[in-house]
Amino acid sequence: MITSLHERELRAVLDGFVDYIEEQADPDRLERLHHTWIPLLSTYVTHDAVESVLDEWHAMIENPFLWIHYIEEQLALTAKPIIQNTLEKWKKPFVFAGHQLSDELYACWSDGRKRRTASACSAAHIIGLALPMEENAVLLLHYFNTDEAFEGLLEAAFSKTTNMTRQRYLNDHYLTCLSLQSDNS
To answer: Which of 26, 83, 97, 124 has the most CB atoms within 10 Å of its CB?
Structure first.
């Protein structure tokens, strides 16, 4: 069981990743992402939130070697089995989209599974970047409120793809999915 002490240690791992991104990520690639996506997404969320989302998505999903390398470094620094187990799970971040079934329970758009959120979230419909936790639970690193119509927009956009799972679509096209929300507001 993850205790508050473990939660603080895991939070420190996540907080340290921001500096790691600044040190290790390709600044030219990040600048291009920022230049392209901040104007498109700033109508929906704040400039700072967009910048953070771009950096995290780039380093965790688009170029996962940055995230994996960082997690490997963190694994070498801890001897606590529960922290090691959680960090191993965290090697597979993903984009989560879904709608709320009850207080902390969401139906995942990509596979229909019911997942509990390990972070405070009360929105009826969401999309965001998630880390796997224990069985059928996720930690939302960030998320954005959507609405019921958003899943229809996702469905329509996904239907135009070929040879791709829904999860792969969310991961690869996260920024485009966020821009759908801008159109939907």
So the answer is: 97
Question: What's the pLDDT tens digit per position in 84-103?
Answer: 999 999 999 999 999 999 88
Using one digit for the tens of pLDDT, what is the confidence trace for 130-161? 999 988 899 999 998 899 999 999 999 999 99
Q: What is the pTM of this model?
A: 0.91
- 72 touches 100 (CB < 8 A): no
Q: For residues 142 and 39, give the distance between their C-alpha atoms in angstroms, rounded to a whole number.
A: 19
DSSP E strands in the chain: the ranges are: 94-102, 105-108, 114-117, 125-132, 137-145
Q: 14 — alpha (psi -120 to 50), left (phi > 0) or beta?
A: alpha
List the structure tokens of 127: 């999309």
CA dist 42 and 38 (Å) reads 6
Residue 10 CA to chain centroid, in angstroms?
16
